[in-house]
Specification:
Elements (H helix, E strand, L loop, with lengths): L2 E3 L6 E3 L1 E4 L5 E3 L6 E5 L1 H13 L4 E3 L4 H4 L1 H9 L4 H4 L1 E7 H4 L3 H15 L4 E9 L1 H9 L2 H10 L3 E8 L3 H10 L4 E5 L10 H10 L3 E5 L12 H10 L5 H10 L4 E6 L4 H12 L10 H15 L21 H14 L3 H13 L22 H12 L5
Parallel strand pairs: 3-6, 3-12, 6-7, 7-8, 8-9, 9-10, 10-11, 11-12
Antiparallel strand pairs: 1-2, 4-5
Helix pairs in contact: 1-3, 3-6, 9-10, 11-14, 15-16, 15-17
The structure holds iron/sulfur cluster (2 copies).
């Protein structure tokens, strides 16, 4: 396993981290579909295998797997002295605080109990964006996190982010963070925190942890036109390795989280992340060109030219317009809608899906791309509907 500096925190972490959001789930015998229940035996096997084979960074959160993920991780690491050998990161979302500052400490105490530990290495404010950041601050989250650190209950103060670069830079200007967790991959150079955001964090000495390195798993599969391109350079190298190599090249990045729900996936990834050549500043000019061309080829499958600018928001019916188009485009790009449907189910559950559109037309005139939003939402819904969690 290759190891990398964790910002200015004074230690190194494995280049591959285990994300505990996609642990194996019990499969319903009748429907053959995964249930909400974590398959405890398999999950513990994966976590312990990871900890025994070089992975020393484990990421979980208050809400993952219906609030079961922290307990599963805590149980798996409590045997064989594993807890002491690894770093644990977990997160508290704004929603769990219920608008009351005293709940912040209660939630931390609950996390410590579930994780069977006296301290958390990296404690994150979960899913920060432009709106939630103001609420975290107003509730006194920064001051609470600082107190926890002084008391030794947490070692590092961090946040995970889903938003745009402008908000990312604002969050950075408000506090001196130890770590930030962002969505980044070979397709997201201009999306979410963006490559510029990753570089900004690196310049400040803040550790950068990557989530969605494969864009929901999509980059593990390449359409024929991308495969041809990759094979022209090296027919043995899998698309998943190309996607990881893009990230591993970046010196700002400390660890890359991958949700691995089978032991085979975990073993394959450990192999990739252990190759000496898969390291910082290792891409050749030719490989960089191939990755750039691969991005263009993936994006040639994008059907709705939405840039995610959000000028169309807010929608009076809370339809998550750019978010829905992003999922639809991912399905088209990767030629598979499984993950996109799963993610869209959360829109349906929260009432922000395309079916809530009442065709008021307020959004269309604001779209600089002149997208026929109403019509496109209907098309997207037809492709994305149908998943049941
Ligand atoms: S047309 Fe639909 S999506 Fe657009 S603002 Fe109105 S309700 Fe929202
Ligand atoms: S305004 Fe248009 S391009 Fe911008 S997010 Fe909305 S749909 Fe996408």
């Amino acid at each position: 396993m290759n190891y990398r500096k964790f910002g200015n925190c004074g230690y190194e972490v494995s280049a591959l981290g285990l994300g505990c959001m996609r642990l194996p789930q019990v499969v319903d015998e009748k429907t053959k579909m995964p249930t909400a229940q974590v398959d405890l035996d398999k999950a513990i096997e994966i976590i312990q295998y990871a900890a025994d084979n070089g992975i020393n960074y484990f990421d979980t959160a208050y809400g993952y797997h219906s609030k079961m993920s922290e307990s599963v991780l805590g149980e798996a690491l409590s045997y064989g002295g594993r807890r002491k050998r690894v770093k644990i990161a977990t997160k508290q979302p704004l929603g769990a605080m219920g608008g009351k500052r005293e709940n912040i400490r209660k939630n931390l105490e609950s996390a410590l109990t579930k994780l069977r530990t006296d301290y958390i290495d990296v404690y994150l404010m979960h899913a920060v964006d432009g709106n939630t950041w103001d609420s975290f601050k107003a509730l006194g989250a920064i001051e609470e996190w600082q107190k926890f650190r002084e008391e030794g209950l947490i070692k590092s103060i961090a946040f995970s982010f889903h938003g745009n670069y402008t908000d990312f830079a604002r969050v950075f200007s408000d506090f001196d963070w130890d770590m930030c967790q962002v969505q980044h991959n070979m397709l997201d150079l201009e999306n979410e925190a963006t490559l510029e955001g990753v570089q900004l964090a690196g310049k400040k000495g803040c550790a950068v942890v990557i989530m969605e390195p494969l864009r929901g798993g999509g980059l593990a599969h390449a359409p024929e036109r991308v495969k041809e391109l990759y094979n022209s350079y090296d027919s043995e190298r899998l698309p998943v390795e190309w996607a990881f190599k893009y990230l591993l090249d970046k010196p700002e990045i400390s660890t890359i989280l991958s949700g691995m729900s089978t032991l085979e996936q975990l073993k394959q990834n450990i192999e990739i992340f252990s190759k000496p050549q898969n390291t910082v500043n290792s891409l050749t000019e030719q490989e960089k060109k191939i990755l750039s061309e691969a991005k263009a080829r993936y994006e040639s499958f994008v059907t709705v030219p939405c840039t995610g600018c959000e000028y169309c928001l807010p929608c009076p019916k809370k339809v998550a317009i750019p978010n829905i188009f992003r999922k639809y485009n991912d399905g088209m790009m990767f030629g598979a809608f499984g993950q996109a449907k799963r993610e869209y189910w959360f829109n349906v559950a929260s009432g922000s899906d395309a079916e809530k559109c009442v065709e008021c037309g307020a959004c269309e005139s604001k779209c600089p791309q002149k997208i026929k939003i109403i019509e496109s939402l209907k098309t997207a819904h037809e492709s994305l509907k149908g998943h049941i969690e």
